[in-house]
Amino acid sequence: MNANDIGLERVGPAEWTLEKRDDMRVPGRIIADPATIDQLLSDIEGKKEWNALEQVHNVACLPGIVGASIALPDVHPGYGFPIGGVGAFGLDEGVAVVGGVGFDINCGVRLLASSRTVEEVRPLLAQLADALYAAVPAGLGAEGSLRLSVKEIDRVLQDGAHEAVRRGYGTAEDLRVIEEEGRFPGADPGTVSALAKQRQVRQVGTLGSGNHYLEVQVVDAVDDPEAARAYGLSAGQVVVSIHTGSRALGHQIGQDYLKEIGEASRRYGIPVRERELVCAPIDSPEGKRYLAAAACGANCAFANRQVIAHLVRGAFEEVLGARAALRTVYDIGHNNVKRERHRVEGKDRTLLVHRKGSTRAFGPGRDESPARYRAVGHPILVGGTMGTASYVLRGTPLGMEKVFGSGIHGAGRALSRKKAAKKYWGKTVIESMAQDGILVRAHSARGIAEEAPGAYKDVERVVQAAVDAGINRVVARLRPLAVVKG
């Protein structure tokens, strides 16, 4: 299929515009390299049930959307919004969209930096991997040592990472370098079902399964010394990335509100082009309830990563001693919805920004960034694959203008989990990674097959597209040393 057939025009080195047609209220804006565009067009020509370009189009038809319906370089089909999708809505006419966040609310990454170098850690790497595997509960339905009543879960939903720190997991210093300081405003536990809460009472402090991971890494290269100094990162330094979200609670919130907001869509007469694009006016009772519940899910995820970080610190101290103390660099989500100030057509406006498989990427000077990072912008934490690399990026002024201060969140899948499991064997993947010097500790061989490096796009290419478009800038490259998977 030719790009012209659907009104897709290249407007920059890694930027494309999907022209307005039929019911689109804004154009589409796709940040991607030509190879990614070719694949997206091939999906349409092959009449795949899901295709990301059609989802960009569908999001552009939603009431109150402003600027453009955006897809970033790690784009692939999702539920409603594409993964790598961004949509910003005016508060007066806009809508809250369940599919604009998804089912793993505030899935995100925390980066911890150690005081140890790779030369110091490598002789003890196997012991460290074993200690982390033992310390951090992982896997489908995994339960942690933290047992909470429903009333106690309400405090987690209200206060996020603050509640975890109050219970002795980490310190107040951690909170200063978490998005929203680890607590989304507007959370109301009363908007979350009893079933969602019950599913979470034993899951705070657990990694989960799927694409979630705990990874010991080395800072392999520094591209932006100024930002790296601000973040406290240097070549050869050992760091840890924690990638997980709101676990069963977030998924249940998504399921509950898919039904409730679906009924609201019909009552308000809002056309829905895909089931997961059900939505309600932002200030409607249903819209307010969903946003309050989504904030609870976000806070649960912050608390989850806070507890896991504490467990990781314990494992590091056990193996490497107290001098290996881990400092939180940053913690940021990539499945969220929140109110933010942005400049649109020359005017400052408060918008409701949905990011799904996309992370906030505010450039220099924004008050939302921690004071220590404000001059360069806060870190963007990009997960690659367990066999290749991850990245620390930062936002740019152009990114603020073109994509509402958003950034890539990972490599993006190239194969579905089902196809990956047919193509790869978990044991073979582990052996191949060991030959590359990467240790794997996993609770499921099938999970490893599903998450094989070959099941993902080339993260280098994805990062380069964001750089070529000018929306994100590379600070440092992180290479994996040891991986813990569910």
Features:
19 strands; eight-stranded mixed β-sheet; seven-stranded mixed β-sheet; 16 helices; 26% strand; 486 residues; alpha+beta; 34% helix
Seen as an oligomer or otherwise, the chain set is single chain
- What share of residues is helical? 25-40%
Envelope shape: globular
Rg estimate, integer Å: 21 Å
The number of helical segments is 16
Beta-strand portion reads 25-35%
Care to count the β-strands? 19
Intertermini distance: 39 Å
Short note summarizing the structure:
With 486 residues, the chain is of the alpha+beta class. Helices cover 34% and strands 26% of the residues. Helix 5 (150-159) crosses helix 11.
Write the layout of secondary structure elements.
Elements: E1 8-12, E2 15-18, E3 28-31, H1 34-45, H2 52-60, E4 65-76, E5 83-90, E6 95-97, E7 108-117, H3 118-121, H4 125-135, H5 150-159, H6 161-166, H7 172-175, H8 194-200, E8 213-222, H9 225-231, E9 237-244, H10 247-267, E10 279-281, H11 285-320, E11 327-333, E12 335-344, E13 347-356, E14 358-360, E15 379-382, E16 390-395, H12 397-402, E17 406-408, H13 417-423, H14 426-435, E18 439-442, H15 445-450, H16 459-469, E19 472-485
Parallel strand pairs: 3-4, 18-19
Antiparallel strand pairs: 1-2, 2-3, 4-5, 5-13, 6-10, 7-9, 7-11, 8-9, 8-19, 12-13, 14-17, 15-16, 16-19
Helix pairs in contact: 4-11, 5-11, 8-10, 10-11
